[in-house]
Amino acid sequence: MDYINAFWVGGLICALAQLLMEKTKMMPGRIMVLLVCSGAVLGAFNLYQPFQEFAGAGASVPLLGFGNVLWKGVKESIVSDGFIGIFMGGFKSSAVGISAALIFSYLASLIFNPKMKK
User: Fold this and answer.
1) Percent helix, strand and coil across the chain, each to the nearest 5
2) Which of 45, 85, 87, 103 would bridge 78 by S-S if both were Cys, CB 3.0 to 4.6 A apart?
3) Residue 28 is assigned to a structural domain of this protein
4) How many CB atoms lie within 10 A of CB 13?
5) Which domain holds residue 44?
6) 41 CB-contact burial (10 Å; exposed 0-12 / middle 13-18 / buried 19+)
7) pLDDT at residue 41 above 80?
8) Domain tally for the chain?
9) CB neighbours (10 Å) of residue 52?
10) Residue 7 in this model has a pLDDT that exceeds 90
11) pTM as predicted
């Protein structure tokens, strides 16, 4: 059942983002920012953790999950480091995911020979 919940919740999040792209004049970058900020706000109100426990990877992999990771990192860093934690926490908590994205995209560019659009 975990796989089914992850599939339909992740699909619903992606479908809602696609609807925003198709039916509004919002640019994809703004929609991505909206998703990240929504995840952070849901995390701030302690609504994201029960949602993530229900949906598993369907909630933690999309951009909503990234916003929640940023929020959790900032919250933990404020407790341990004080005010400066506002600036450090997001970087500490998301460093592994961002590094993996950069490394894998670089490897993909070596394998698949990217081309510039004309």
Assistant:
1) 85, 0, 15
2) 85
3) yes
4) 21
5) 2-112
6) middle
7) yes
8) 1
9) 20
10) yes
11) 0.79
